[in-house]
Amino acid sequence: MAKTTVVTGATGHIGANLVRALLAQGRSVRALVHVNRRAIDGLKIEIAKGDVCDLESLCCAFDGADVVYHLAARISLSMGDWPLLEAVNITGVGNVVEACLRCGVRRLVHFSSIHALIQEPLDIPVDESRPMVESRRSPSYDRSKAAGEKEVRRGIERGLDAVIINPTGVIGPYDFEPSYFGEALLAIACRKLPALVGGGFDWVDARDVVVGAMRAEECALTGAKYLLSGHWVSVADLAALVEEITSVPSPKLVCPLWLAHAGVPFTVAFARLTGGRPFYTSDSLRALKSNKNISHERASRDLGYNPRPFRETIVDTLRWFEENGDIDSSLKS
After folding, report:
1. Rounded to two decimals, what is the model's pTM?
2. Which of 115, 244, 253, 310 could cross-link with 142 by S-S, CB 3.0 to 4.6 Å?
3. Residue 95 resides in a domain
4. In the chain, how many domains are there?
């Protein structure tokens, strides 16, 4: 009987890519699904209904599992979402750890985030030795992901075989939701973003994250942690690349970060009125001035990790959005 690999958060951006990569290896995949399953519709996988906040549902989902990839998380750019972030990203991780121990799961691959790590000092590269976020002045999401890592460490102390993955800003195909970064890319490609902001981010292809995580499952030592970064690119350069690929003019106005911060209350209020998500919040603007040098040296050494060129990621992502009906075909050159 084939050993089962369980994926929580299988309907998210990385999850949709991971499930397809696991199936390409001929593996038996069981996806933990809470509500939406659009990203995995039609795939030959087993579905387990469950919720990371419900320990018993996790035990049922993990029964007989060899490996668990834990991706399910709550992402938020608001300081006011702490109760939900705590429930999903901390208590939920503790439940996943407990269910893995109860069910005898051989290995847990836990997905954390670059946001779990302190970015300062900005002139020194961030690597796996960087301390984790703890200050209550830090964004709620950052604190929740750092605390989630600690839950995994507690599980390791109890005998759990687990490894931790910290991706940077994930972008790439199979972004059904779409993600925050995918939505921003669409806004640029569809001329719905009136102005750009200064700063930038380290962007990594979802497919490269999946390759790195699967290699970590195969060969990483228990307790190992890997930063999976890509390429730091400014928002302005990202928009220029989209213009080059699509021939759609990018916004010419680039707002400095200090001025963008002053406009946050207005963008948040407008998003609430229109039912959308604000692109620019205090947390997202803070992220755009984070450390420009995120080292994946350890992952390259131990896992053979090698992120693809950034242009390839953007071309493939825009093509996927076009095929998925999110971008009008007339926009593509």
Report:
1. 0.93
2. 115
3. yes
4. 1
